[in-house]
Amino acid sequence: MIMASFSIGLSLLSSNMLRESNRRLLLSAEGRRILSLLEGRPSVDNDIVREANGRPYFQDRRADFSISHSEAATAVSLVRGEKLRTGCDIQVVKARASTMKIAEVFFSAAERDYIFSRETNKGSEIKFFEIWTLKECFLKLRGLPVFDMSNAPSFVCDAGPDQGHFALGAAVPSPLSFYVYGLPGHSGEQYLLAVAIEGDEQLRPEIRWFSQPFLPARSIAEIKAAASPAETVSPKI
Question: Which domains can be identified in the chain, with CATH numbers?
Answer without folding.
Answer: 5-225 (3.90.470.20)
